[in-house]
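Section 5.1 Outputs to date
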Amino acid sequence: MKAASIRELKPALKDCSHAELLEITLKLARFKKENKELLTYLLFEAADEEQYIRQIQEEITTGFEEITARSFFHIKKSIRKILRMTKTAIRYSKKKETEVELLLHFVKEIQAFRPSIKRSSVMVNLRQRQLERVEKLVATLHEDLQYDYQLELEQLSNY
């Protein structure tokens, strides 16, 4: 089955009644975990972006605290999982400020993590890529925000 485009779906959804839209939305939520997470964000968390950022930052911190340092393989795998969760949260929000805040927090946590990631070129490169991504995002923000984030970036770059 070929999926319809957004252009085709939009008029079809406009023709649906309120009850039909509710039923479609609930089916989507049951179908996939990501759909349910996005719906949760849109309904409950989008109104208070600051609280959403704090919640995700806590999840990132908790994720780093739960990493067991058995081997570097497990550490890398766990850090990638945390980054994947962070990027999913960023995708739900679609706000540049949120993305910058979450990625900066991720980089802070990866730098504070013990044992140090400096021995692993893969992890150093992952950290560096996230810093570069933040730099690009900061350049697109308002001047006042740019200044604040630039100070934080300089501190993190001197790792």
